[in-house]
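Table 4 source record.
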Amino acid sequence: MSEETVLDVESHERPEDVAATLRSIADDLESGDDLSIDVHGESVTLTAPGDTLEFEVEVEREPSDAGEELELELELEWTTHAGGESQADTESAATSDTAAEEGDGSVPQDDLSIE
């Protein structure tokens, strides 16, 4: 099965709005519920991960004329299996140019709903 991008949104938001989105994702992870991600009017629901998942944090710093540009990437990766079980995917995760990214990668259609 080939990789499919199911949600890719980049926008300028207030820090408190970004925090609310991240908090919602964190709440879903903590409760074991499916992840409902709603960013700037676009949304997707992902099957909850099982007991473990791969978590990557990357911070880049680049000098610019205006000072310094910082980029923070957050990436979560897991594999869903038949029957709704999930486990961490041990393959390398692809990175992107978005500042914060969750749930990126190949997601079987049965484990995904897009609104």
